[in-house]
Structures are given as C-alpha cells and as structure tokens.
Design brief:
The protein is α+β, with helices and mostly antiparallel strands. 38% of the residues lie in helices and 22% in strands. The strands form three sheets. A three-stranded antiparallel beta sheet has the order 5-6-7.
C-alpha cells in the first residue's frame, strides 16, 4: 500500500553503494512511505530503494526476486530473468529484451500509481521526525522536452547500453517505445 511506511537499514545503504548502480541517497534509520520509496526507486533508479522494498516485501531479496520473475512470466515476458531487485545484471546473470520491456511498460502505464510516479518530473519529501528531506529528479529527459511523453523509465547496462522505455500519448492513442542505444544522446533522438 502506498501509505505504508518502510524503514531504511544500513544493509540497504551498503547494497546501493556497491556495484556501481544508481542510488537515491537513502539514509539508514529513515522511515518513508512506500509511495516515496517508489519515487526513490523509479526517478533516480535507486538501487538502495529497490533493496528496501525487496527486503520488506519478499520478505527478503531472494523471495522478492522470485516474485519478480513470476510476475514477468504472468506478463508474458518469456525472455527476461531477474537476479536482484534493482534489475542490474549482477555477475552477468540478468537479462531482458526490448519486446519484454514493452510488456512491462504496458503494465506500468495501466497501473494508476506507477503511471503517476513514472510521469513525475521531480519529487520532494520534506524533512520530518521520521526522515531527512529528499528530492529526486526523473532521469527521463523526454518528460521535460516532449509534451506528449507520459513516462516510463531510463536505464543502463553494459550489454544493453543506454536504454529508454518511453510512453507518449496524442489524442486517444498512446504508444510505447524501447530504445537501446550505444550512446546517450541517441536514446533521446531515436525515441
């Protein structure tokens, strides 16, 4: 539930700091809502946020990854395998295809909460007694430069290179594209 609260642990912060993945800059001991944690995951691609959610809702990362793989199969993503909660291909193990990413993006834009979050340009969380202040900017530049853009997600892996899964709507028609490009500017121009 988006209003539920989850706690960031030192293990979540350590996980986010290793391996070169992007992080949301979470601090151990902070308590945030699940909705804020989803922003921390989806806007800056926070591996630390992915770890918090997986640890909490698996329960445990391994159980959560098993749920991710089961959900992928339910969506018809036959050519996707997750090996961790952040989607990075740790030790070369995880993989997906552009076709499967379209299937995933279709499910994301069909979910009101995820659609709202992935279309958010900037999200701020004011400081409270439970946590410090946070602010995250969506890495999807098309949200700022293309009025028709309705979300979805950027990414990078060595094999896939610069990835942009984007949705755009004009009139009553929404399309989803996946671009995997060898250079960063190409993912924006090709989308």
């Amino acid at each position: 539930k988006p209003a539920d609260t989850v706690k960031v642990t030192a293990a979540d912060v350590r996980y986010g700091a290793k391996g070169g993945a992007a992080v949301a800059g979470l601090r151990a001991g902070d308590r945030l809502t699940v909705e804020d944690m989803l922003h921390a995951l989806l806007l800056p691609s926070g591996a630390d946020a992915a770890h918090v959610l997986a640890r909490t809702y698996g329960p445990g990362v391994d159980a959560f990854v098993a749920k991710m793989n089961a959900a992928a199969r339910e969506l018809g993503m036959a050519d996707t395998r997750y090996v961790n909660a952040d989607g990075m291909p740790t030790n070369g193990g995880g993989y997906s295809t552009a076709r499967d990413q379209v299937r995933l993006a279709t499910a994301v834009v069909a979910n009101d909460t995820l659609r709202k979050i992935t279309s958010t340009r900037y999200h701020s969380v004011p400081r409270t007694a439970e946590h410090r202040a946070y602010s995250w900017r969506n890495t999807n530049r098309l949200l700022r430069t293309m009025p028709e853009c309705t979300g979805v997600k950027t990414g990078y892996t060595v094999k896939a290179q610069h990835v942009l899964v984007s949705a755009a709507k004009r009139d009553d028609r929404e399309v989803i594209s996946v671009v995997m490009h060898p250079d960063k500017p190409g993912k924006w121009t090709d989308s």
